[in-house]
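Notes from hallway chat w/ T.B., transcribed later so I don't forget. T.B. wanted the structure written out for a chain they're using in a teaching module, and asked if we could keep both sequence and structure tokens in one place. Agreed to drop them here.
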Amino acid sequence: MTTAAPALSRPSLGRLSAVELRKSADTRAGFWLLAVIALLAVAIVVLQLVFGEAAEDDNLSSLVSSAVQIVSLIVPVLGILLVTSEWSQRTGLATFALVPQRERVIAAKSIGATVLTLAAVTACVVVSVIGAAVAGGDWDLGLGELGRFTLYELITMLGGVAFGLAFMNSALAIVMYFVIPIGWSILGETISALDKPADWLDLGRPMTTLADNAVAMSGTDWAQLGTATAVWVGLVMVIGLARLRRTELK
């Protein structure tokens, strides 16, 4: 008498996301990047409390804003490594053999990146709360400001994921992530004919406003942020997905 083999089911998106989160901390590079994020948050809060203006820089909103902006220098690198690890560590064949739907793997990586972003923002808030308590500053962080800071960090993280997917090489993706936007920003600042288009296509301009706790976002600011994000995150992600579909795994 033979028994039927149990039906196999593909892993859920939640399980895939948990695997990607674990992979982000399993490597030495990933572990130390996570550690550096926490250390940077602590360092910027301490420096701002020591050298900043007491009336302006020791309040919670200002501390979180500074911590989020300095951490955003490292967060996209974490997003890049989350994607490029399949090629740099030669695990792509196993990953995509177990999950042939490549878009599901990228969706899981994006969810993992989002969770890491929330963890980074939480670390910034916790460190800033401790700093504000020690300094006796104002506790003036509103939900709107917290949402803006979280969105700021999330855009930088997903931008790293997009560039990592588009270039599929850790070093190249990291260099291009910083060089291409900075180059476009310089062109927008130096060539007058590009100044107006740069308002809508230079992600750095609305992102600066988004992270500034002292400046309110206008409708135009939100529109420019959406347009620039669609180009630097959405379009690059689409290019990366198209390349992923055609890439031969070895």
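Follow-up for T.B.: The chain has a mean pLDDT of 86. Might be a good example for the class.
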